[in-house]
Amino acid sequence: MAWNVFRFCTGLRIVGSIMIVVVLAIVAVSYYAVVIASYIPQLLGPAASFHDIILALLVLLLFHALLFMLLWCYFSVVLTDPGSVPQAWSPAMDEDLEAEAVPLASAVQPGLGINLPTSLVHSLPHNSKVRFCKKCNHFKPPRCHHCSVCGRCILKMDHHCVWVVNCVGARNYKYFLLFLFYTFLETTLVTLALLPHFIAFFTDVEEDSGSPGKLAATFLGFVLNLAFALSVLGFLIMHASLVAGNSTTIEAYEKKVSAKWKYDLGRKRNFEQVFGARKSYWLIPSYAEEDMRRLPALHGLDFPCKPDVGGDEL
Ligand SMILES: [Zn+2]
Ligand SMILES: [Zn+2]
Q1: Mean of the pLDDT values across residues 63-89?
Q2: Could you list the residue ranges that cross the membrane (predicted)?
């Protein structure tokens, strides 16, 4: 039996909200190292040259702009429900039959070991592989998975992310990707901004380059941001390829994605299924109302498929 990497997720419950404090602590160290210890003194220093002032202004402006976007995206991922299955949701069927299904007495469906209304069972397509979550006791929409950390089914679940203390699913995946994007830009900026100070840390041993606190913050800020920039870059590349192929981390892990992947609508449409069609919304953690109306995938229940690829999985 293949080892399931998602099983270790159950242990993540313990970590909980501590991760939000960890993220904010890393931001605080970086803020202190870049703004307080390095570039405000460079801007206001009595011997500051024109070049020093312009560089300091540029770094401070970019740092604060990216930090604002990073925190906006971060708390959007943390606070947005990734999407849960509506109580009355059932696999696609004729509307008349669905209405009929409600008053009928329940019948036992042996294969599933649960109670399903008879008419509902008969109305399902013969070749359909109905997905049902025994833990939540409801049908699973397409691309939905049960998260053992959250203890519920998540629409178009990508993964449970320990850094955002939330599942990443249909309704917050874009926000998560933007969080990765701005984190990469911010950590790269901090790494480059602290590089001259980091080099000075080792070379200017005789020069008085600041208090031990400032030196420690500069050293820690540089090392942490370099490590994050490199690892986030790896994640960004991985997710760029997932978005391009319209698949999730779980689907890629389960190797469902093939040349005939039924959700692959071509790169442009695949991108719109996550980011929406309105360009002015692509870089912010929000959707245009028009996109929410026009793109059912953003709600996480219906996903357009390639017309030429049949699929029996609901
Ligand atoms: Zn479930
Ligand atoms: Zn989860």
Answers
A1: 95
A2: 12-33, 53-75, 175-195, 215-237
